[in-house]
Amino acid sequence: xxxxxxxxxxxxxxxxxxxxxxxxxxxxxxxxxxxxxxxxxxxxxxxxxxxxxxxxxxxxxxxxxxxxxxxxxxxxxxxxxxxxxxxxxxxxxxxxxxxxxxxxxxxxxxxxxxxxxxxxxxxxxxxxxxxxxxxxxxxxxxxxxxxxxxxxxxxxxxxxxxxxxxxxxxxxxxxxxxxxxxxxxxxxxxxxxxx
Amino acid sequence: xxxxxxxxxxxxxxxxxxxxxxxxxxxxxxxxxxxxxxxxxxxxxxxxxxxxxxxxxxxxxxxxxxxxxxxxxxxxxxxxxxxxxxxxxxxxxxxxxxxxxxxxxxxxxxxxxxxxxxxxxxxxxxxxxxxxxxxxxxxxxxxxxxxxxxxxxxxxxxxxxxxxxxxx
Lengths: 195, 168
Hints:
The complex is a heterodimer of chains A (195) and B (168). Helix content of chain A is 59%, strand content 0%.
């Protein structure tokens, strides 16, 4: 098992928590105070769990399988997905099995029908909704929209290819992607519909 | 659909969304330390406070190991050092700082020892073996004598300083 002796765990923790924030945004979860319903974990908790497993030796890192941050980030995202799956299950379990009577359709919802802090699975994993959220976050940002179009419409992935297609430099593409991440996360914080 | 199938379907759809996110927003490792701090501050998370909270958690973990008579894992020890509040430098910066401190300490120690070292030196006589085959001018001789005198004085002063330090 090869470790990276020069890795700064403090820096790693900051990057992981920031990545948790991005993952929350990916799945439409709101701000930093949000805890995934059903499991009660915040983005800080997710970052902590992965770090704890790493320092305790439960999460082994092999240099041949990529850098340490990638390994921990993947583990963190899998943890979030797993928690969402559990939360969705809890939501399904707690739903009322009794259908409404025809004459009560217009009535206010009963307690078990009220919106809860639980997860709407369909909305959570819907790629079309994800794209809509993404485009909505780019309103008034033509430079960022250009990058997304190059990725989705022209199917370009590498910064060099995107830079060539847009007629800009590679650092400019990287800078725009950074702005894109920030914009998407911020937009999600304001517009997020999930708990 | 069985519970197992539902779970698989959930994981598949979630992973597809994650891949789409990576395609558009970039791979996770594209978030560097500077961007991470920015993203955290925008979410009202102070990076230093976050590190301090992690330090407290690692500290509790280390104490739990110690309470059970277990050895604290090396990475946990490293985490305690890396997360220690007030230590805002990166690991490389801290290593450089440590090296610089060691070098300065060594220099100071040597400087303090200088009078004693000089005191131990045998009496040196200035060898005025001028290599020039030509006759030295009076001015040259005067200059060389002055230099010799300065060296002798410096040596004398250094010896006196050493004795004063020793209380003799």
